[in-house]
Specification:
about 5% strand, globular
């Protein structure tokens, strides 16, 4: 009795310390803003932040597993959620002007184009992220670039919340919400390979899809007839429409989940009337709504038929003896070896945590198949077959993209698969922890759970942001880099084009022009061209742009694979090459078309 009274007091004390640690972590990050380009967000963020953040997460996990009081458990999960939100928002806390290279810069340009009236949101294939960004900009009075970073943070919070809510709908125990929350905190759908925790429409749509998955699970368990309406049904229909606008290709990937559920419901109602699925609310109408919204939207955007046709053609060529995906993988493996890495090593870093969860899901599915007395089926409300059919459909799409060599698209499908795997993995953990608690002492089970979660959480979070740990540079865009490009574009000479390092300044031109479409007119120079002397290698004079990101990426992250330090440092010293602009983060050189 004394122990039961003292436990809540101890838990409250621990939670107070956890929140203090979190406040200290946030204050540390915010008071140490970036002063220039940072190659790794992890290394550049003060060690104090990581120590305090780790303390907050440990307290959250410990109290959530230990507390029998529901209020204390929810408070602990809130602490963990706020801490992980701070982690996701590190670029904002550290004062980054923008955090996204490539597609993100183009998305920012499109948002500016919509904002200034250059084109309508409906002119874009997926205007969801851009429209929400403009809404945040208007509501909070912040810069558009910062507003787009906040959209990423908000969608991360939605992912945490709805994965946590989804798991108890599949399996309910005192460990379900804790297992679900800390599984969600791992960001398994984010791989840094085509799915990113930065402004990227497909990545954020994948996180947003967790809302639809929750509503589907809630809907099929609702005790209502086929034709009746409900708040859950209305919410699901609205979410389906929002997903189509946010990214219709994500909806194309999600459709097998909806259609598969409908197929299972038809089969079980016909031949397995004693199975829980037979009594679930039919999803036929909601699937029809999703298909109708999808077809209505893409009717004005002729994009997906081209992607599918390209994937099918390339897949056939692969099986008939072409190069395809295997060749791409071999090329990437050779590049990793050249800079001192290994394909196996980088694979384990990027997908180690996902493999753990996939193994747990595999065991759970096997147990369901061998569930002769239907104990597990009843405990999971018959939901597991829904996830299996969804994952099977996504596996088919993954294979189509992979063998069709559709650039990086298979990793985006994999990211969506990880939403399902996160929920099922949490179910497996909650069920296993519940079973072990009946055999072992609570302290031993809690220690094992904390250790397991701690190891896998660190494994996963270490690769959420690009860094030298996974041989990728940070996509940090400084204000000086952007202003340097703006000045260069404003003072561009007539008939003088730009080139860059590895790629031209096309993405920065997208921001400057704020037009529909993508700039692709600017090229690049390679290391051998620099070595031979840049002047005289083109019929026209050129501008050459180089940013601090370019230098750090090539010299440090890629270990001089394509460009050496000597080559990059010598550009301004080459004959007929003049440095015409420099601000510390951006350099512009004028390259004469005639060699000396």
């Amino acid at each position: 009795m004394q122990r039961s009274r003292s436990a809540p007091i101890a838990d409250r004390g621990l939670l107070a310390l956890g929140f203090l640690a979190l406040v200290g972590a946030v204050a540390t990050a915010h008071s140490n803003p970036a002063t220039g380009y940072e190659l790794s967000l992890y290394a550049a963020t003060p060690l104090t932040f990581w120590l305090l953040y780790g303390c907050a997460m440990f307290v959250a996990l410990f109290v959530a597993l230990r507390a029998s009081n529901r209020w204390l458990r929810r408070t602990a999960l809130g602490l963990g959620g706020i801490a992980t939100t701070a982690f996701a928002g590190l670029p904002v806390l550290r004062g980054y002007w923008f955090y996204s290279g490539g597609d993100g810069l183009t998305h920012l340009g499109w948002a500016r184009g919509i904002q200034v009236g250059n084109f309508l949101p409906t002119d874009l294939r997926y205007p969801g992220m851009h429209s929400v960004t403009i809404l945040f900009d208007a509501a909070f009075g912040i810069d558009l670039a910062h507003a787009m970073l906040l959209v990423v943070v908000v969608l991360s919070v939605l992912f945490f919340a709805f994965v946590t809510l989804s798991t108890p709908l599949v399996f309910e125990s005192r460990y379900s919400t804790t297992a679900a929350a800390f599984s969600a905190f791992m960001f398994l759908p984010i791989t840094s390979l085509s799915t990113h925790l930065q402004p990227h429409a497909m990545s954020q749509a994948i996180l947003f899809s967790s809302v639809a998955v929750f509503l589907v699970l809630k809907y099929v368990r609702s005790p209502a007839s086929l034709l009746s309406s409900s708040a859950v049904g209305a919410s699901l229909a609205l979410t389906s429409a929002a997903l189509v606008v946010y990214h219709p290709q994500l909806v194309a990937h999600l459709l097998p989940f909806f259609v598969g559920i409908c197929g299972l419901q038809v089969l079980y109602r016909r031949w397995r009337t004693d199975h829980p699925i037979a009594s679930h609310r039919p999803l036929y109408g909601q699937t029809a709504v999703l298909v109708a919204a999808f077809l209505a939207w893409i009717s004005n955007h002729g994009f997906f038929s081209g992607v599918i046709g390209y994937a099918v053609t390339n897949a056939l060529e692969f099986f008939l003896g072409g190069g395809g995906a295997a060749k791409d993988v071999a090329t990437q493996g050779a590049s990793l070896t050249a800079i001192g890495g290994s394909f196996v090593g980088i694979f384990l870093k990027l997908f180690g945590a996902s493999l753990v969860f996939m193994a747990l899901v595999g065991l759970l599915v096997l147990q369901t198949l061998r569930d002769s007395d239907r104990t597990l089926t009843e405990a999971t409300y018959g939901m597991i077959p829904y996830f299996v059919v969804g994952l099977a459909g996504l596996s088919g799409i993954f294979a189509l993209y992979f063998f069709g060599s559709v650039s990086g698209m298979y990793f985006r499908v994999f990211g969506l698969m990880m939403v399902f795997v996160t929920i099922l993995g949490a179910v497996a953990i909650a069920r296993g922890t519940t079973a072990l608690s009946r055999r072992w002492s609570a302290g031993a089970v809690r220690s094992a759970a904390i250790t397991g979660f701690g190891i896998v959480l660190v494994m996963s979070l270490l690769t959420v942001f690009p860094s030298t740990f996974i041989y990728l540079p940070s996509p940090h865009v400084t204000e000086m880099t952007m202003s340097g490009h703006e000045t260069a574009f404003d003072h561009q000479g007539p008939d003088v084009e730009f080139v860059g390092i590895r790629a031209g300044p096309n993405r920065y031109a997208d921001i400057e022009r704020a037009e529909l479409g993508r700039t692709g007119e600017y090229g690049a120079v390679n290391g051998s061209e620099i070595e031979r002397g840049l002047a005289g290698q083109s019929a026209e004079d050129r501008y050459l742009t180089m940013t601090q990101l370019d230098w750090e990426r090539e010299v440090k992250a890629y270990d001089e694979l394509r460009y050496t330090r000597t080559q990059l440092d010598s550009i301004g010293e080459r004959p007929e090459v003049a440095r015409v602009q420099s601000n510390g983060e951006f350099e512009l050189f004028y390259v004469d078309s005639v060699a000396d």
